[in-house]
Amino acid sequence: MNSLKFLLLVTIINFSLAQPGYEGNENLYIGNVDGKIVKCLVCKETVKEVRDAQAKVDPKKKAEVKAGRFNLDGSLSGQLIEFRKSEQYLTELFEGDEGICKTMDDYAKAKYKSSGKLVVLKMFVDGGMNPLMSEVDFVQDQDLNKSLKHYCLEVLDEFDEVFLEYFMAPALPKDLEDKICNERTKLCKPEYYEEVEVEEEEEVVEKSRFEEEL
Q1: How far is CA 103 from CA 56, 108, 121, in A?
Q2: Which positions fall inside the DUF3456 domain (predicted)?
Q3: What are phi and psi of 159, to 5 degrees?
Q4: Do 40 and 51 contact (CB within 8 A), yes or no?
Q5: For the chain, first and last CA: distance in Å?
Q6: Where do the H-state alpha helices sit in 79-190?
Q7: Strand pairing category for 76-82 and 118-122
Q8: Run of H or E residues at 51
Q9: Which domain holds residue 130?
């Protein structure tokens, strides 16, 4: 999704808020959310965005890495690796407003209607509107979701070595988001979701009781 589409969506939300009698029940949730949980979710989405960006680079494109050994002519010897796994490519991807964190402009904070679970949702996927949008209420706060990009830059600045370690490796683990955001950076903690899990369990119990009564 380009920034223009997201700006249009934000404009629509703000217009709805300004209307007299608006009760906040039309796919919009008013209120602040825990910044630590948002940062955890942004970490996981950043991992996905880096993985997707890396996958789009032709694996046949190579970069030379100096090995630290001198040739007879005095030049450093080197070896060729996939450009997409080079420190040069990844460092450029991680840095600046035009790097991978620019993708956070396409995301918004929301809560699932069924469970109240917080999510950082990508607004458009595969050229169309994300089908999950009908299942959530958007969280409208003062920063208009600008904090998502800030958190992304903060995560990559603080934990760039962890990201480089995994994305420069020959293969990526299947549970890459958990490896980076849970185990290594400790940005995601189990207690963030304990309350949500309890709510979901209570919903299941209530549903079972209702079915028994029928």
Answers
A1: 15, 11, 12
A2: 39-188
A3: -120, 30
A4: no
A5: 46
A6: 87-94, 146-158, 160-167, 176-178
A7: unpaired
A8: helix 35-55
A9: 3-213
The total number of structural domains that make up the chain: 1
CB 27 within 8 A of CB 138: yes
DSSP secondary structure of 131-154:
GGGGGEEEEE-TTTTHHHHHHHHH
Hey, what are 156's tokens?
């990559």
Please say whether the beta carbons of 106 and 98 come within 8 A. no
Residues 6+ positions from 24 with CB-CB distance below 8 Å: 30
Phi, psi dihedral angles at 74 (to 5 degrees): 90, -5
Q: At what angle do helices 35-55 and 146-158 cross, to 10 degrees?
A: 70
The neighbouring-strand residues paired with 63 are: 81
Structure tokens at 182: 């849970």
Compute mean pLDDT per 10 residues along the chain, 214 residues long, and list them: 49 40 47 84 97 96 70 58 93 91 94 92 90 91 80 96 96 95 93 50 40 46
Secondary structure letter of residue 75 according to DSSP: P
Q: Which two tokens stand for residue 125?
A: 């996927």
